Amino acid sequence: MRYPKKLGVTSSFLKYYDQHGVLDPHVAQNGYRSYEGRHISVVQECVKLRNLGYSAAEIRSMLNSPYEETLDALEAKQEALERQICYLKYAKKYISMAREEAHFFHEDPCWTVDEHGDFFFLAQIQDFNFIEDERVFALAGEWNQWLPAVRVAACVNRGHRDGPKIIWGLAMPMAFARAMNLTYGEPAVYVPPMRCLEVFDRRPIGDGLNDRGLEGVRTSMLARVNEVIEQHQFTPLGPSYFFVRAKLKENGERVTYQKVLTPVL
Question: Which of 77, 158, 170, 252 is the most buried (most CB within 10 A)?
Answer without folding.
Answer: 170
